[in-house]
Write a structure and sequence with these properties.
single chain, 311 residues, mainly alpha, two-stranded antiparallel sheet, 13 helices, 2% strand, binds acetyl coenzyme *A, PaaA, phenylacetyl-CoA 1,2-epoxidase activity
Length: 311
């Protein structure tokens, strides 16, 4: 690339301004963004499955309506993110193909099962809480379309987190059996939620470059720490224990110390060997195949419209 384009790109990043679709950008920057944004979009779509399973089994009409709206929001997030990815010159159909062939990833967290209705609450509280910690800084990501998509997504995620916490509060005011369901869900989701932030900093191959380009604003470990610091007081208020014997307040650091997640488990889940990987991908593949007629009909309609305006 001509040096003046390279310099303009670097100056834009240095001034904390945005890179926009028509601006020149290094190939590596484009590739990293396609990887992260596509992976993020796939996660939103696959993330509809664990909670979606509970829509027909929600305990009341009110809970059903809330859960329905929430799962639908996740579909919307996936769509804004695929649109953001397309501004980088890739095609959504191709990204979907890459996911189905196992050449692109989606978040590890959606490979765990939802065993009871308290899981819906804990997903809202932990998983959407973790998503907020990770995504609020992404509103300042250097790539304009990605950063702007994050603004709306974060507003909706914050509603999702509150609905989860409110659901759990309600269950905690209920019977002993309901309180036990909440504690059981907390025990199962805590460590996988910490793993959402990715591997530890010294084992995170993409972090240094993504942070230099200001695609990522904070390291995986920093965001994980923020999540722990935010969540511990909420757990106390709710009346549940987090399953970590090493969790304690560190006066000197002004933050919580906590135990080490099982990184070998994260590796296994990322490489396809989690409790529900096969099921999630099979469902995603079936949905794609069952939706083929809709895509064909939409394409035929668009072609007809285009032919009409030409005449
Ligand atoms: N699940 C699946 N894959 C992961 C996870 C995870 N929890 N954490 C890291 N990985 C993958 C990375 O994608 C990378 O693989 P790749 O090079 O093939 O893409 C590899 O493990 C090494 O990790 P890092 O070098 O740390 O990767 P990166 O700098 O991309 O950081 C992170 C990972 C933090 C997930 C980042 O991509 C990110 O912030 N993404 C946007 C948020 C997002 O995708 N959220 C989805 C779940 S939240 C929700 O949708 C409700």
């Amino acid at each position: 690339a001509p040096p003046e384009l390279q310099k303009r790109f670097e100056d834009t990043i240095a001034r904390d301004q945005r890179i926009e679709p028509r601006d020149w950008m290094p190939d590596g920057y484009r590739k990293t963004l396609v990887r992260q944004v596509a992976q993020h979009a796939h996660s939103e779509i696959i993330g509809m499955q664990p909670e979606g399973e509970w829509i027909t089994r929600a305990p009341s009409l009110r809970r059903k309506a809330i859960l329905f709206a929430k799962v639908q929001d996740e579909a919307g997030h996936g769509l804004y993110l695929y649109s953001a990815a397309e501004t980088l010159g890739v095609d959504r159909a191709d990204l979907t193909e890459r996911l189905l062939e196992g050449r692109q990833k989606y978040s590890s967290i959606f490979n765990y099962p939802t065993r009871n209705f308290a899981d819906v609450g804990v997903i809202g509280w932990f998983v959407d809480g973790a998503a907020i910690c990770n995504q609020v800084p992404l509103c300042r990501s250097s790539y304009g379309p990605y950063a702007r998509a994050m603004v709306r997504i974060c507003k909706e995620e914050s509603f999702h987190q509150r609905q989860g916490y409110e659901l759990l509060m309600t269950m905690m005011r209920g019977t002993d059996a309901q309180r036990a369901m909440v504690q059981d869900a907390v025990d199962r989701w805590w460590w996988p939620s910490l793993m959402m932030f990715g591997p530890p900093d010294d084992d995170s191959p993409n972090s240094a470059r993504s942070m230099a380009w200001k695609i990522k604003r904070h390291s995986n470990d920093e965001l994980r720490q923020r999540f722990v610091d935010m969540t511990v007081p909420q757990a106390e208020k709710l009346g549940v224990t987090l399953p970590d014997p090493d969790l304690r307040w560190n006066e000197d650091r002004g933050r919580y110390d906590f135990g080490t997640p099982d990184w070998s488990e994260l590796k296994r889940v990322i490489t396809g060997d989690g409790p529900c990987n096969e099921e999630r991908m099979a469902r995603r593949r079936a949905a794609h195949e069952e939706g083929a007629w809709v895509r064909e009909a939409a394409a035929a309609h668009a072609a007809k419209q285009a032919a009409r305006t030409q005449n």
